[in-house]
Specification:
By secondary structure, the protein is of the alpha/beta class. It has helices spanning 18-30, 42-52, 72-78, 92-101, 113-124, 132-139, 155-165, 170-177, 181-195, 200-209, and strands at residues 11-14, 36-39, 57-60, 63-64, 67-68, 82-87, 105-108. The strands form 2 sheets. A 5-stranded parallel sheet has the order 2-1-3-6-7, sandwiched between helices. Strand 1, helix 1 (18-30) and strand 2 (36-39) form a beta-alpha-beta unit. The termini are far apart.
Length: 214
């Protein structure tokens, strides 16, 4: 009998190195993703998406034999997938581009197992993950004064974004700031309106572009 097609809850790993795919697979399994599929190129990734639909979460390398997977990030997000970039690209341009394209997490291949697992769990809980080592790259080279709606952000809203950039959930931010999770959610609603951003990833990126997060 033919194999059953992957469900919406399946995970996808895109990397052209078998060892790396196996390592990510182990992390996804530990994060609770029971059905995991591996592809080694942009072409095979697109074929997988066409045949099986969007995964719940996709972990993708940027530098592949047939190009950069950066172009896949917005496609995956548009299909409803959570995207974590797992790459050796440790330059600020790659990091900013990945988050701007819709990635919810960015993990360097030099990171240890705990960082990847934390990123997966954070993203699967509909939060943005920005590890401290990546945060410094994200803001590197960002210049200029706050523009547009960023000028309207209050100090408390900036504090909320800083904690979100550290990968904290709404509940964790609420605990840190001594407010309710509902209040934090309200902050994000107002921040999104001011920045013209639809989700936490875009809010964090826009705030960093405005040089508000350091």
């Amino acid at each position: 009998m033919p194999d059953e097609p992957p469900t919406k809850e399946h995970g996808l790993v895109l990397d052209d190195h078998t060892y790396m795919r196996r390592a990510v697979r182990a992390c996804l399994d530990e994060a609770g993703i029971e059905e995991i599929h591996e592809v080694e190129s942009i072409a095979t990734a697109r074929q997988h998406l066409a045949e099986h639909g969007a995964p719940r979460i996709a972990v993708v390398d940027l530098r592949l034999s047939d190009g950069t997977a950066l172009e896949l990030v917005p496609e995956l997000k548009a299909m409803g997938s959570k995207v974590v970039v797992f790459t050796s690209a440790d330059d600020s341009y790659s990091v900013r581009s990945a988050y701007a394209a819709g990635a919810a997490g960015y993990v360097l291949k030099s990171a240890d197992h705990a960082v990847m697992l934390d990123a997966l769990n954070t993203v699967l809980n509909d939060q943005v993950h920005v590890d401290s080592s990546v945060a410094s790259l994200l803001v590197a080279g960002v210049q200029g004064a706050p523009q547009g709606g960023a000028q309207q952000l209050t100090p408390r809203e900036i504090d909320v974004l800083k904690l979100a950039a550290d990968g904290m959930s709404n509940n964790q931010i609420a605990e840190r700031l001594g407010v309710t999770a509902l209040a934090v959610k309200g902050h994000f609603v107002r921040i999104g309106r001011k920045l013209g951003a639809n989700d936490r990833t875009q809010m964090v990126v826009e705030a960093m572009r405005a040089d508000l997060l350091r």
